[in-house]
């Protein structure tokens, strides 16, 4: 018997795990996530992806690779405190090579984290860092829970906000960024993902929105200029396009990164350093 499977917005984490599992089976894979398949299977594989679902799978794997590279660079530059906000079924704490002394905090809703902890423990999975799960709602008083779990705001931190912002309102996202800023020691970095309105309203996304709404995971927000938005919160951001990530990794440009398919629609991938810091 598996623990209760993730529901509501937490069910979206299964889609990402599936995409990561499929990527691992490709000859030209950009990463291997050996836990993605077992986690998705335990949660109940989501079948019959819509065209939109298949389209965004390309994005999910490109973004995984992009954020893996972001974290690796932060580690190479000496950062040893990492916070994955809305960690979902991401198994980076188990699959990446973390230098000794690295602590990885995973914040997500309590049920999702209980499910993940139990499935991974049953498989005998051992984190390759000091992994600290922090059950909390990111719209509420999560900084206290993070500090209580041992997070040190004086240290430089690599923050990752992957696959979350669309599910929060613009006001919640502003509060999230303000809190991240308040908890960031000198030398911290931040990487985020969000969408613009044209993406959110793209006709191809309609079936996906209908399915998300049915699982209480409707999108709540978008951002038109993520670099300006981050600047307002003290971060100097840099956008990387999916086509560039595909090219770096020897992949053809997928439809999700093709302007003839997507027009003005953008899925933003942005990494940032604190204003005034060298990159
Ligand atoms: C699309 S998944 C992304 C998970 C992970 N970052 C990844 O890329 O595999 C969205 C995640 O956000 C989490 N989430 C959504 N709303 C949340 C909230 N208010 N507080 C904490 N976590 C939340 C869900 O539980 C889910 O794990």
From TrEMBL:
The keyword Lipid biosynthesis does not apply. This is S-adenosyl-L-methionine-dependent methyltransferase. GO terms for biological process: methylation. Its EC number is 2.1.1.-. Exhibits S-adenosyl-L-methionine-dependent methyltransferase activity. The keyword Methyltransferase applies. It comes from the Bacteria. NCBIfam families: mthyl_TIGR00027. InterPro entries: Ppm1/Ppm2/Tcmp, SAM-dependent_MTases_sf, SAM_mthyl_Trfase_ML2640-like. Pfam families: LCM (PF04072). SUPFAM superfamilies: S-adenosyl-L-methionine-dependent methyltransferases. One of its GO terms (molecular function) is methyltransferase activity. Belongs to the UPF0677 family. Keywords: Methyltransferase, S-adenosyl-L-methionine, Transferase.
